[in-house]
Design a protein that fits this description.
The protein is an alpha/beta fold and 283 residues long. Helix content is 40%, strand content 20%. Helix 7 crosses helix 8 and helix 10 runs antiparallel to helix 11. 36% of the residues are buried. Bound molecules: pantoate.
């Protein structure tokens, strides 16, 4: 496995691979790898000839500086995992290889209404930072395929729009969320959940399942939202930020299920000040 910290070296390595007809699969990550990331790497290994993974905790997508500073970092374990998975190349740059000069970030993206709901509403500037780094990485790696996890469904939608609007010739793949035995969605942030409250973290997933059952049995979206709010807030260590039903066609909030195949239930909340998000499809 080749490891690069400079984009110029990665570009020099990938040029001949591309000219030799190799299909490049790209998995962007912020490290602290878990089974969810491995599912993305494995999907790329199946489809592409050369799998590239980036590890970079992107400062511009954190609206909360404390959250950025606390983001788990485990670079050497990550490298070991990627080697075992047969990843071909890792790009793990310092901030100055991607932001020069660091801290200056002038290009702004505008994704319209989708930026004003869910993660966009509660994490101002988050998607601008995601779009900025993803654009830089796409331009450096120039992949044929890229893999994103369903856990960050709104991010997937933003990247889909980015690929469309900027005419990237990249096939975007959505890979299902990988879960712990009790249903908790795998996330790098899970490492920060203290043992004693860990069982309660699964309630976010359980409330999605409960909400879906209620909707299937005929409760309205508003009744379901009320019920889930009480369910989460009945637990002293948990706080609900949002529970919403989303039409995934245009990624808008809805209070009616119009298109069962394109409807998702999305949740975000806190356990012990650690922010978790999750979602499931209506069907
Ligand atoms: O999903 C993530 O880990 C990040 O948002 C991404 C896509 C690697 C961009 O920093």
């Amino acid at each position: 496995m080749k490891v690069f910290s400079l984009k110029s070296d990665l570009i020099s390595y990938l040029g001949p691979e591309r000219s030799n007809g190799m299909k490049i699969g790209f998995v962007p990550t912020m490290g602290a790898l878990h089974e969810g990331h491995l599912a993305l790497i494995r999907a790329s290994k199946k489809e592409a000839d050369c799998t590239v993974c980036s590890i970079f905790v992107n400062p511009t997508q954190f609206n909360n500086r404390k959250d950025f500073l606390k983001y788990p970092v485990s670079l050497s374990e990550d490298m070991d995992i990627l080697k075992i998975e047969g990843c071909n190349a890792v790009y793990a740059p310092g901030e100055d290889d991607l932001y020069d000069p660091p801290g200056v970030n002038t290009v702004k993206f505008n994704f319209g209404k989708v930026e004003t709901i869910l993660e966009g509403k509660y994490r101002p500037e988050h998607f601008n930072g995601v779009a900025l780094i993803v654009t830089k990485l796409f331009n450096i790696v120039q992949p044929h395929f890229t893999y994103f996890g369903q856990k960050d469904l709104q991010q997937y939608f933003i990247v889909r729009q980015l690929i469309h609007d900027l005419c990237y010739n990249i096939q975007l793949r959505l890979i299902p969320t990988v879960r712990e035995k009790d249903g908790l969605a795998q996330s790098s942030r899970n490492r920060r959940i203290p043992e004693n409250v860990r069982p309660e973290a699964a309630l976010f997933y359980k409330s999605l399942i409960t909400g879906r059952d209620m909707l299937h049995k005929g409760s309205t979206v508003n009744e379901t939202k009320e019920y889930i709010k009480d369910m989460i807030e009945g637990h002293p260590g948990l706080q609900l930020e949002y529970f919403e039903v989303v039409d995934t066609e245009k990624f808008t909030l809805t209070d009616q299920i119009n298109n069962k195949n394109n409807t998702a239930l999305c949740i975000a909340g806190y356990i012990n000040n650690i922010r978790l998000i999750d979602n499931i499809m209506y069907i």
